[in-house]
Amino acid sequence: MKKKIGNSFGLAAVFTAAVSLYVILLAFYPSWLQNLEGRLWRSQSQDLTLHAEYLTTGSSLRLSEVQQAKIFRKFDDEKYSTAATGEAMWIRIPSNVLKQDYAIFSEHPYVRDYDIYFPIFTGKMTVYQNTEVLSSGKVRGRSIHAFAHMPSSIDAELPIFIRINGPVVNPEFRTMLYEDFSIFENRLSLFFSVHFTVFLIIFLVNVILYYIFKEKSYLFHGLFQLFTTLSLYYYTSFGNRMYDMGTSFYYEEFQMLALVFMYFFLYDYLKVKNKGVLFRELYQGALAVTALSAFFILLTDHDREMLITSVAVSISYLYIFLAALYTSMRKIRFSVWIPFATFVLMVSSILQSLSLLAYIESHVNISLMIFTAVLTEAVVFTYSIFYFIREQQAENAFLKNQVTIDHLTGLKNRYYLDKFAKDKILLLEKSGKSTSMIILDIDFFKSVNDDFGHDKGDEVLQELARKLETTFRKEDSVTRLGGEEFIILLYDSNLKTAEHLAERARRIVELTDFGLKRPLTISLGVAEKQPGESFNELYKRADDALYTAKAMGRNQVRLSKESELVPSLEVDP
User: Fold this and answer.
1) If you ran DSSP here, which 8-state letter would residue 88 be given?
2) Residues 378, 391: Cα–Cα separation, whole Å
3) Which residues fall within 8 angstroms of residue 528, CB to CB, at 6 or more apart?
4) How far apart are CA 358 and CA 17, in angstroms?
5) Is residue 81 helix, strand or coil?
6) Backbone phi, then psi, for 341, in 5-degree steps?
7) What is the DSSP letter of 432?
8) What is the distance between the alpha carbons of residues 527 and 438, in angstroms, rounded to a whole number?
9) 477, 489 in Cβ contact below 8 A?
């Protein structure tokens, strides 16, 4: 069992470490990983912000006024570029860095409320036209990334302008061949579809577990998965595959609600209310702060909701990981799985906060890896649930077996007869099948204990139990009542079969060397259950037959009085 547990934990640890390593690589994003991802995903693209400048203005400023502005600033990875509610961010990009048949798209799928102004050469003059009026279509469409197809008649001497309505934080635009962009979108859709499918399956599994076991922790975990699914739905703009979501965006709200339910889930699962006062108060305090932050995000429209949410999630998952690690070290329940499950959540959320604060290079995959981290948590924790259920079932089976087993001989005991055998006999009777009972007793067993000691007597009982188990059929029940008395229930067997097996057992025991320097014999009483007869009545008839066998000289088989007319059998062992 310990080896099995170790293998399972090792598998979870390797899986978690692999995902964590990928998240960390995304944070630093070496060139070889960029090239590898580009080939696999057909996502090789050019970052337009490397050539762009930006300006934050009021939302009412027109393009003609923006063209005259001379305070455009270059994007700087070390700075935090943002536009608040009621503001607009204008991005100016040289047209000569773009090519025909290329798509321009926002790196972050949730950035959809923007428009692109292209300098279109009409033959006589150049006119700026936005994507609302160009034949290439609107920016927002039924795709994961909001994009625009490059027109064919661009004046390469004039810049392209992109206008983004606030609030927006650190926007990033890229360009790539339109054909590759279409393939990339389809593969990304498949990637997200897998996440959505697994999230919904695990949500349903948790609801079913809650319905079966009535444990609130499963319900809370299911709600955590549900709200994470909704936040992914908005963050990735996956809904655009089905309809145009426009500018609707509730990513932060659903992410904070998911975090609150994660706290509730662990509060119940780790039994926080039963822990020490300090641990309980710290956890309740963290839960209260998170709940207040969630209400703030839900009830207000703050310009930096994403940053606030990211920092709150990072701190919370760091605390959750430490709390789970603490309970795991205390070996409480099967919470050893929770550190595995929450570690990737902690790493990915911290990296996202660092990227938003410009401490590391911003990359959309870092944000998307949060959802892969949730997927990791879901898989690991759900596996731990079924692992826990399987282990509990094995433990219950072991305890049940311990209760029904005689520890000296390994045979069934009296409790088994009272709890299970009686019901089985009634079921056989209802189906028209008979049951026979054999009661046997070791002849002069007291003298064995007196002459050779109780240890030798125990060895004799153990050897006799082995002989009886090999003599009777596997479907029969060999039970030790206590002392030197045994009962054998022969299911679906008539009296003739029972007498045959009883005589066979008597001969085998008589010929067996028990190391006593004298033969050991047994006396047996046999009875077949009559219709409507109770278990106690059957037992009394078999016991009376045993008493007759002893009275008539021992070492013999006797049938109950109702069956004395049945001729005896001569049976070879």
Assistant:
1) E
2) 20
3) 434, 435, 436, 437, 494, 495, 498, 560, 563
4) 25
5) coil
6) -70, -35
7) T
8) 7
9) yes
Q: Rounded to whole angstroms, how far apart are CA atoms 159 and 194? A: 40
Instruction: Walk across the sheet containing 160-165 and list its strands.
Output: 73-74, 53-58, 87-93, 160-165, 114-121, 126-130
Query: Measured between alpha carbons, how far is residue 137 from residues 105, 130, 244, 505 in Å?
Result: 13, 10, 13, 92
Task: Please tell me the distance from the alpha carbon of residue 345 to that of residue 535, in angstroms, as a whole number.
Answer: 61
Q: Collect all residues with Cβ–Cβ distance below 8 Å to 273 and sequence separation of at least 6.
A: 267, 280
CA torsion, points 184, 187, 189, 191, in degrees to nearest 10? -130
pLDDT in tens, the chain (573 residues): 444 444 455 665 676 677 667 666 655 666 666 666 655 555 567 888 888 889 899 888 888 888 888 888 887 654 667 888 888 999 998 888 777 678 888 877 777 778 888 888 877 788 887 765 444 444 545 566 667 777 777 887 888 898 988 878 778 888 888 777 777 777 777 777 787 888 888 888 888 888 888 888 889 988 888 888 888 777 666 555 544 545 555 777 888 888 898 889 888 887 888 778 888 888 888 888 888 888 887 777 655 677 778 788 888 888 888 887 887 777 655 555 667 677 777 777 787 777 767 677 666 666 667 777 777 777 777 777 777 777 777 777 777 777 788 888 989 888 888 877 888 888 888 777 888 999 999 999 999 988 899 999 999 999 999 999 999 988 888 999 888 999 999 988 889 999 999 999 999 999 999 988 888 999 999 999 888 888 888 999 999 999 999 999 999 999 987 644 344 444 444
CATH 2.60.40.2380 is the classification of domain 46-179: yes
Helix (H, G, I), strand (E, B) or coil at 339: helix
Closest C-alpha among 443, 520, 508, 442 to residue 472: 508
Fold exhibited by the domain 414-563:
Alpha-Beta Plaits (3.30.70)
The answer to whether 538 touches 529, Cβ cutoff 8 Å, is yes
For 470-517, give the secondary structure using H, E and C.
HHCCCCCEEEEEECCEEEEEEECCCHHHHHHHHHHHHHHHHHCCCCCC
CATH 2.60.40.2380 domain range(s) in the chain: 46-179
Rounded to whole angstroms, what are the CA distances from 375 to 202, 232, 253, 270, 312? 9, 11, 19, 21, 20
Locus of tokens 């206008």: 163
Q: CA 269, CA 218: separation in Å to the nearest integer?
A: 8
Distance CA 298, CA 337 (A): 32
- pTM for the predicted model, two decimal places: 0.61
Which 3 state secondary structure label does DSSP give 183?
helix
Which candidate, 312, 314, 307, 268, places its Cα nearest to that of 288? 312
Helices of type H across 270-302: 277-299
Count the residues in the chain. 573
Q: Compute the radius of gyration of the chain from its Cα atoms.
A: 39
